[in-house]
Amino acid sequence: MTTWVLLRGLMRDQRHWNGFDQRLRQRGCTVLTPDLPGNGILTHQASPLTIAEYASSVWQQLDEQLAGQAFYLLGLSMGGMIAMEMAKQRPEQIKHVFVLNSSAANLSPWYQRFNGLNALSAWLKRCRGRQLNPIESTIVRLTSYRHRRDIALIERWSRYRHESTPHFSNACRQLWAAFHYRCPASLSVPVSILSGDRDALVNIQTSKALAQHFKVDLVVLAYCGHDITIDAPAKLAHYLFEIICSPEQDVGEPFADYTDLLDEERNYHEARLVQSLPNYTSALPSEAE
What we know:
This protein is of the alpha/beta class. The chain has a domain at 3-108 and 167-256: 3-Layer(aba) Sandwich (Rossmann fold). The protein has helices at 20-26, 51-66, 78-89, 110-113, 116-125, 134-143, 151-163, 168-179, 204-214, 228-231, 233-244, 258-276, and strands at residues 3-7, 30-32, 71-76, 94-100, 191-196, 218-221. Helix 6 crosses helix 7 (151-163). The chain is globular and about 50 Å long.
């Protein structure tokens, strides 16, 4: 049984995995989703000003749960920065680091690391409604490509914000830490860099810079925005499994169900046809539309 630790980023917490953590658990994995100081169940804490301090906080949580057990580490956005820092601090406990749509100040300019124009556009084009928090609606519009108009998702995240809202001061402190983060010169654990080709928040060039820095191939997921775990969870799980399993290993049942993988792509492209061709008649069953 493999153990995974998943780290989210700026002002997000364990509730925002949107079922991706459960997808891994269904395949027999132990999955831990620690919150960062200032977010989620730790919203009462002050957020640190350096990524190294966030990494130390995560290690404190993991020490209580894993007792030195090795694990696979996945970080999204700012979570990817923390994942790299954790691998620098304790490489002996990490089997593999997966960095999704992240960046580093020593490798990429600030305007590639945060697209302010797209953020403004997302605010103006966000979905509106009585049950939709404008900030969460903007975040979904900015970070998801396939689900940027998903009202149910926005409503759910709006409820999360009502239940537990990061303080403005903590949001600023997290931004400061992320913008000043400099990745290590090298890591002694295997590293994989993944990116969505439709990321509106962070330019794909930042992931290319990380891949070049660590001398690894960049894995690009098509039709995915900043939050790949929402846009293509089955595809992402499939890639993760393919990376950690060598061809010589008997992996048994596929880590990501191929039926889920095919359905995910079929449903997405079918939805695009329905939207772009008014006279197109869907071939999918009504419950899948």
